[in-house]
Structures
1.
Amino acid sequence: MKIIRLITAILGGYLLSSLLTVSLTLVLPFSNKAESVVLASMLSFTFWLLFILYSYSSISIKKLLIQLAVVSVLLFLINSYFLEVKA
């Protein structure tokens, strides 16, 4: 079970932080998009670390995987339909 938690923490955290980076890049109110990209990229490392710490908290692995799936799908839908990111 610890290997599954480790893989979930690393890969799930990367997935979540990349989705949040795309969202923040499009939402931040800078006139220059390069500033938005840089700030969102720097914040992504914080999000990744927070998810890794959260995944090792006292939450069960099933709840963690369900929460990761729900948040990832919601962020994907927000990026795809509301912020209109074309893949």
2.
Amino acid sequence: MLEPAIARSHVRATHWIDARSWTVGASYLHRLVRTPGGWRVSTIAIRRLYEKGDRAVLAAAADRVDAAAK
């Protein structure tokens, strides 16, 4: 049986809504398992490294989605 694999990825994401923005940098740890169909992600953990700006843009975006769905 093969041992599970571990992969790490880094991301910098900027979220914009109107003139406001929120940028977050993070590191993801992916645990992978080998299946008959190939490698599959079994778990993902995120560690936020830094952020800048207005995190409230996430709530504002969710509010827009809710309003558009009505």
3.
Amino acid sequence: MNNKYILLLTFVIIYSINSFSQSKKLIEADSYYNEFNYSEALKAYKKAFKKNESVYYISTRIADCYSRLGDSYQSISWYEKATALPSADEDVFLRLSLEYRKVKEYEKSDHILEKYQKRKGLSIDDQSIEEGNSIDYLMSDSKSYEVFHLNINTPYSDFGPMIYQDQLIFSSNMPVEDAINRSDVRNKKGFYKLYSAKRNSLAAFSKVKPFDKAFRTKYNDGPISFNSGATVSFITQNSEKEDGASHMHIYMKRKEEGEWPKKSIPIPIVQKGYSFMHASFSNEGDKVYFASDMPGGYGGTDIYVSHYHNGFLSPPINLGPNVNTPANELFPFCNSEGVLFFASEGHYGLGGLDIFYAYPDSEMFGKAKNMGYPINTSSDDFNLVIINGKNSGYFCSNRDGGKGDDDIYAFTHNKEFKNYKLSGKVIAAADRRPVLDAEVMVYTNDKLVKTIKTTLEGEFFFYVDSIDDCKVVVKHKNYEEETYTIDSSSLEDSFIIYLIR
């Protein structure tokens, strides 16, 4: 997925930079880097490094360049140099840990991740090394999936699958027959354009052809998302250069008399100088999920949600630490059950970007879960969408054995992405009034799996993998603690927990 690191993912890593007088070569290197031209930036940074200036900053930049260019071994070498310097901050340890995962050096990755967690003051369980998050565990459910290569993949980079009517729409940088043969100066490859192919079956398609020309610009187009009625679309495209840098923005179109208009409207929540991308409608069409590197997140690119109504978007809400990490989260998608699927390099995984899912609860989403092998590998696996409601769909990967830089894969799963949904309400026994902000702790097999708060109406809901040995403990400073044991009757309706003063 290296092309999209350059073209579509504005990965942001912030390092502590001491005040220094920049040389001309370092200024030139930063300029290349900010333009995502990592090959030229790498040459310039190496020349600046020989002058022994800003050693930590340049070391990390060189490592970043190698990471973007897909050379993890060189990236590891330079990150190791950076971590050995007195000025090393905690984020470089996280980057080093992630690179070791890409080359399947999992023990080294875990060891360095522990160093990162200690420096950040995190509990070991906050990030990775806990039951259910081990390499053996992530490989254990592989027989429940079947993965199929698509007949429409090309030797180039194909990604961004989305169902539109009876077609699969996707983005590709395959050569375009055009009066002007344009290419991106940053990687010398073609710009991404949208294509369509009629679906004959899950993994077989008719001939590929360009998608509606109303979505074609001079630069990169895609991925795209449609509402359920296919009357509104959100597409990721290049914005005009801002302060010498290129960013991705989300643009909206609404059908007019059954046709897509040529003019696109940038969504009003974008902020100048930052990227907004990978918009995806909820199944009901009332929410739009997207990724952005705007300020105020947890690091890198985070996933946000905005409520959508009749062309208007509410201010974005960050999905919080159960989804977002100090690294990068991208490509959100919600299925018909409200389960969120997304790509992350920050949650514990097999390497590169892995695909995760998170069940909704009354606060936002529960803890992210890795989909495991063979959906995930040590390569970049990303951009999963669900079709037919529940247990089949498409995703993208640059894993070995593919046809191009990135390929689109179909999959089926013999389990539904649905756990047991439990709804409850906390009531004061004395006056039957709802209790706000009661702490609801959910246990399975005597292990705390999540903690949520009740709403103004005293309500809460959550998902669990199993109702066997499941219980809820409710605490509030003004009431006695109460325990409720879950059984099959709890699934039939919302259960009530009474609190006594």
